[in-house]
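Many introductory courses stop at the sequence. We go one step further.
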Amino acid sequence: MCGIAGFVNRDGRPADGGLLRAMTDAIAHRGPDGDGHYVAGPVALGHRRLAIIDLVTGAQPMGNEDGTVWITYNGEVYNFAALRTELEARGFAFRTTSDTEVILRAWEAFGPDCVERLRGMFAFAIWDARKSVLFLARDRFGIKPLVYTCNDSGVAFASELKALLEDETVARDLDWPALRSYLTWGYVPNPATIFGSIRKLPPASYLLFSPRTGKLSVTRYWDLRFAEGDGRSDAEWIDELRAVLADAVRCHMVADVPVGAFLSGGIDSSSVVALMSRTAARPVRTFSVGFREREYDELPYAAQVAARHRTDHREFVVEPDTLAILPRLAWQFDEPFADASALPTYYVSKVAREHVKVALSGDGGDESFAGYRRYLRALGWHRWLDRTPASLGRPLWRRLAHAVPSELRGAGTLRLAADGPLDRYARMMRIPGLMALDDLLTPQARAEVGPDTGAEWFHSFIAGRDQADYLTTLQYIDMQTYLPEDILTKVDRTSMLVSLETRVPLLDHVLVEFVANLPARLKLHDGETKYALKRAVADLLPEPVVRRRKMGFGVPLHRWFRGASEDYIREVLLDDLTRRHNVLDTQSVARVLDEHRSGRRDLSVQIWSLVCLELWWRTWAKAAPSRREPGRPTLTVAAR
């Protein structure tokens, strides 16, 4: 795992090596083991290294033997040994034992199609002087980040936004529609970022840029297809699933440094740890976080799994005073990010990094194996409402929803009933709260962010696409939205802040493609989620872990915000600096805080999203970030 940055100037203008070094210095936390820089003519490629594989000869940027092709790369390719054998048969010679050189040679052999042969997580840039082309690529699920900007100077790219902001020619104008997206979903969806001039390269995509012609294109190279299973019996499906799972976990354990695992006590991470233990030569090192609040604490379940497999286990309890890390997280995420589970994820990463350089996680299992409870809720609505005669269905509920004031209890349920299937799911995925988004913004900010687009974003993903059923439609949407923009972003940023590589074997694309073909009865079975996964690993885990209801990686914000952390929250959201930003209407925010304090409603998620926005604003918009030198340019607020 590493950090990458670089740029290619138009018109042959020489690259600024000092700027390249500033960009890589900004992401030094992603690679504290070393840095490398390649500057030649208009090209600059930089790298920060976290050494995991080929500790001696794997330094980057790496070039071919005649120096015409160069790569800077972040990630791990787990099938690199087999791919290397294939390339050697084609006549390619290798000077290192790294996966980096395998990707370089694969580009020489297959061009842009090389990405289709890679099994793993990756974000990389290749400069091919022979073709005069810059090639950027990102893995299928967006496990590794990659952002870029294109302007009159050329194209620049990096693992994190902060590296691009080292370049004074990159405009800092706020993308107001992106801000609305954040306040709706809790994150900024790709390809947008919070800055209008910077874009995210979407998952499963590559970019080609020619500095000679100025042409830039982005191409999607992979998509997940769902299909109903064939004639195999349930037992045959489960047996094969067990084998594919074991292979995915085994592949993800390849490293030349110590490897551990996050262990939440849920079925996903517990399955990963159990399969790791069957392969590892010594006890697996496992790491868990919990809370004093019993209803949020999974440590007892994690301890059962650790005892069953005799892991080397460590725990950490998250307290309300851990909110002190929030300003640092605001710096690390670069743009507003409202998933409160970033807090425990940071602390479990911090504990793990004291003992290992690599940790496997169970992320991705909910999307692939249909583990979210909201799937059951959405399917229940679908069966009850969307299959009734049109005259008795949504029109009736729509009239009732319009007649009931939004602040009354039950109004939200009426609105769900009035929505269509995808619109209803989109409403489920929004940040919950008492007040409408527009009521929380000042009139000036409200005019800038534009209208609410509702579920149009969700509809765009399935336009012209055949879905096997409603459940797979929801799974697919989550894999395009919530998974890359929330879950994987959270894990990457928090773990890389402490220089820990995290791997997600349940998002191995070979495994996910297999699971996408499982019969529906093996995903949700009589109201039970992840039925196939539970059957596949039942003999490896304690029975209470297999039988338990999904808890989720929640944080007891509702208690913290009525107790030890209330003064801190009010100080952040209601002081003069917040008013001067002229984005949040502080009177409306005060009403939200008072409503939450009263105990009548739990508005902690909405409050958290506002706190994260304000802290981001102070870090990147108006105040000098603590890790940037004084006097460097800051964001300017202007309409697009």
